[in-house]
Structures are given as structure tokens and as C-alpha cells.
């Protein structure tokens, strides 16, 4: 839904035809090709992650199918020294930040090493946040630190449409506005919060307008149009970096996949709605735009797919070679200084594992 008082930006229609005067980024052929390549890589990696869950090699995974434009544009715009405070559907932006595919697989395989990013640009980024909306407050904490230190850095946090109903989200908007923090809230409105549709999630016509009550700008973009996402997030990041305060950008997209691999969306979503949404998806839209300008063709597409698949396959091999972590690793990253009670529990866990191994996994405890 839209609201006449809330800006809404779209440059490309679902067929990739310009429908407004194009922004500067549309003239940067090298950038657009990079964005397109990354969207395709993200989609193929996502497919692979779902397949790995289906064959029991990782745990639950939250697909990003259909929402690639949001994370790819955001990742292209953030500076290395900015900090990303993401949620669980952020494969696209994590990959752009330099998080390795095998780290993402380790994370979803329940391995703590998956949140210990090797790439320097991602080193200080937060791990994926599963509790809904709590990350919005963490991002405000990070942004406060930037402001106190006088650093021109931006904290960027992402969340879904459902998350905007949480108190944590609204509290974060409030403090961001009150303290004029260098933070950007990116709302991935994919129309569903598991089985709850956006239409009954909130009485306001837009989620963007929640920022107005906190005293800063909220706006909507077509989240399937990467030119719109890129142009408006660029403005939001620039504002934050220049000390002009926070922005909320609501990106309208659609969750083409299940909520997670533990979900079956056919139980609550009309097939016709999903079919319609496929007409608006972001990858084909940018591809059509590039092709119309003579900057893309079928041969390049096939070449790209082969390159991406090889990259994904190599990452899967690295993931599989990583080996298992000791079970007590689940406790290792919780505290800088260990509370005595946990030290005891850690020891108990270690003993149990040793007993199990001694009995070949047959022992009862
Ligand atoms: C505090 C909290 N409450 C409930 C849940 C269970 N839960 C997981 S995902 C989800 C829906 C979130 O939907 P949305 O914010 O729209 O994000 P999306 O998954 O659609 O990207 C819920 C309620 C949770 N993870 N944390
Ligand atoms: Mg959602």
C-alpha cells in the first residue's frame, strides 16, 4: 500500500522499462553489471543452501529468493567501515560485505565460526539476528558510539515487515530520532511474516510512516527495482554520514520462497498471488533493462551461471571440509569473562560428549 504523504520511488516497471527519469546510477554500466552478477550469484547460492538443507547437510535456512535487489544494492553502497546489523534473511547483503559463502553455510549448520567473518570489511558486522527486531536497538547503540566518537560511519539495520510491529523496532526509531543517530533502517517488506500477511499486520497504509512519529524521514521504494533501492539508500546513507540523522527506507518486495525451509507456504498463500509476484521479481527486471541497452545477452547469461555455480560448488566443498566444532563451542562466544556456573556446565557438556563418543553414540544419559 502507498500513502500520498509518503514518497514512493520506482524507475523500472516490472518489464524493465524505464517509467520515470532515471537516476545517476542507471548510467554506470559497470556498476549495473556488477549488481546484476551479484544478484544471480545470490540466487544460485540461495538455491544451493535450500538443497543442502533438504539433504540434511545444514539446518534450517531462510531463503532470500525474490529479495536480492535490496541486499545487493545496500551492500554495494555501504563503506567498509560502516557496520551492518542484519537479520536472518540477509544472505544478499552479507555476501556483498565480504562474508564468505562457506561462513553462511557454517552459520546455518549451527557452527559458531559462521559468525566470525574473515573479511576485514565484515569483521565488525553483527551476526544474523533471529529474535525479531532486537537488532534495531543494537544498531542504535552502534550509531550512538559513532556519534560520540565523531566518526563519519553509518550503522545499517535490516528487518522484515512483521518486525516493524515490535516494541523494539519502535523504541529504536524513537531513540534514533531523539538523538539524530547515523543509522539507516532498511525494512524488507516482503508482504508476509511467516503466515501473517502485511494487510493485517498494521493499520497504517505504509510502514515507512512509522518514522514520521519519531521525527525523521520514512519513504518507500519498489524493492524489486534495484535502481530505486540503490538511489534511495544512497541518499539515506549520505544523510547519515553527513550527520543529518536517520532514515527509514521501506522496500516493497515479495517473499517468493517459503518463510524458511521449516515452512510450507502453500498451506496459507494463494498460488495465484505467488504467480503474480513472479512477474515483478528483481533479477529478470534488471536483466531486461541491461539487455535493452545492449549490455547483456544469452551467451553472457550462460557464462555467468556457469561461473557462479562453480563458485558456489567450491564454497560448499570448503564448508564440508571445515569439520565439526566441539559441542561446547555453543557457549564459547557468550561472555568475555566466564560466569562460574557456565564453566561448570561447559565441563558437564564436555564429559557427556566424551561418554557418548566412548559408547559409539549409544549411551543413555
Ligand atoms: C522475538 C521473536 N518472536 C517471534 C519469533 C518467531 N518468528 C520468526 S520469523 C517471524 C516473522 C518475521 O516476519 P518479518 O519481520 O516480516 O520478516 P521475514 O521473515 O518475512 O523476512 C517470527 C514471528 C522470533 N524469531 N523472535
Ligand atoms: Mg516479512
Automatic annotation (TrEMBL):
Keywords for the protein's UniProt record, in alphabetical order: Oxidoreductase, Pyruvate, Thiamine pyrophosphate
Cofactor: thiamine diphosphate
InterPro entries in UniProt: Alpha-ketoacid_DH_E1_comp (IPR050771), DH_E1 (IPR001017), PdhA/BkdA (IPR017596), THDP-binding (IPR029061)
UniProt domain Dehydrogenase E1 component: residue ranges: 36-327
Pfam families assigned: E1_dh (PF00676)
Catalysed reactions, as listed in the record: N(6)-[(R)-lipoyl]-L-lysyl-[protein] + pyruvate + H(+) = N(6)-[(R)-S(8)-acetyldihydrolipoyl]-L-lysyl-[protein] + CO2
EC number: 1.2.4.1
Class in the EC hierarchy, top level: oxidoreductase
Keyword Isomerase belongs to the record: no
Function, as annotated: The pyruvate dehydrogenase complex catalyzes the overall conversion of pyruvate to acetyl-CoA and CO(2). It contains multiple copies of three enzymatic components: pyruvate dehydrogenase (E1), dihydrolipoamide acetyltransferase (E2) and lipoamide dehydrogenase (E3).
Assembly information from the UniProt record: Heterodimer of an alpha and a beta chain.
Name of the protein described by the UniProt record: Pyruvate dehydrogenase E1 component subunit alpha
Amino acid at each position: 500500500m502507498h500513502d500520498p504523504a509518503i514518497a514512493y520511488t520506482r524507475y523500472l516497471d516490472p518489464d524493465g522499462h524505464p517509467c520515470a527519469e532515471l537516476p545517476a546510477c542507471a548510467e554506470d554500466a559497470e556498476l549495473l553489471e556488477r549488481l546484476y552478477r551479484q544478484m544471480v550469484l545470490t540466487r544460485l547460492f540461495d538455491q544451493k543452501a535450500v538443497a543442502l538443507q533438504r539433504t540434511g547437510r545444514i539446518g534450517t535456512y531462510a531463503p532470500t529468493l525474490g529479495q536480492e535487489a535490496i541486499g545487493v544494492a545496500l551492500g554495494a553502497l555501504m563503506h567498509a567501515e560502516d557496520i551492518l546489523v542484519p537479520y536472518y534473511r540477509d544472505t544478499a547483503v552479507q555476501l556483498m560485505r565480504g562474508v564468505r559463502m562457506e561462513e553462511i553455510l557454517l552459520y546455518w549448520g549451527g557452527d559458531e565460526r559462521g559468525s566470525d567473518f574473515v573479511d576485514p570489511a565484515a569483521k565488525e558486522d553483527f551476526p544474523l539476528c533471529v529474535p525479531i527486531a532486537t537488532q534495531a536497538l543494537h544498531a542504535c547503540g552502534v550509531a550512538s558510539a559513532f556519534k560520540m566518537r565523531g566518526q563519519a560511519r553509518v550503522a545499517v539495520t535490516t528487518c522484515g515487515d512483521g518486525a516493524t510491529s515490535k516494541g523494539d523496532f519502535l523504541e529504536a526509531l524513537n531513540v534514533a530520532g531523539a538523538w539524530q543517530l547515523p543509522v539507516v533502517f532498511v525494512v524488507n517488506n516482503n508482504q508476509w511474516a511467516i503466515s501473517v500477511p502485511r494487510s493485517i499486520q498494521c493499520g497504517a497504509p505504509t510502514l515507512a510512516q512509522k518514522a514520521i512519529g519519531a521525527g525523521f524521514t520514512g519513504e518507500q521504494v519498489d524493492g524489486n527495482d534495484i535502481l530505486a533501492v540503490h538511489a534511495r539508500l544512497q541518499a539515506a546513507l549520505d544523510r547519515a554520514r553527513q550527520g543529518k540523522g536517520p532514515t527509514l527506507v521501506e522496500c516493497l518486495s515479495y517473499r517468493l520462497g517459503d518463510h524458511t525451509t521449516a515452512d510450507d507456504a502453500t498451506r496459507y498463500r494463494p498460488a495465484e498471488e505467488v504467480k503474480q509476484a513472479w512477474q515483478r521479481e528483481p533479477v529478470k527486471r534488471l536483466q531486461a533493462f541491461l539487455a535493452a541497452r545492449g549490455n547483456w545477452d544469452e551467451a553472457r547469461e550462460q557464462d555467468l551461471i556457469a561461473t557462479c555455480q562453480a563458485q558456489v560448488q567450491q564454497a560448499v566443498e570448503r564448508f564440508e571440509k571445515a569439520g565439526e566444532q566441539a559441542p561446547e563451542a555453543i557457549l564459547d562466544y557468550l561472555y568475555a569473562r566466564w560466569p562460574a556456573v557456565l564453566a561448570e556446565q561447559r565441563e558437564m557438556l564436555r564429559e557427556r560428549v566424551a561418554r557418548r563418543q566412548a559408547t559409539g553414540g549409544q549411551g543413555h544419559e
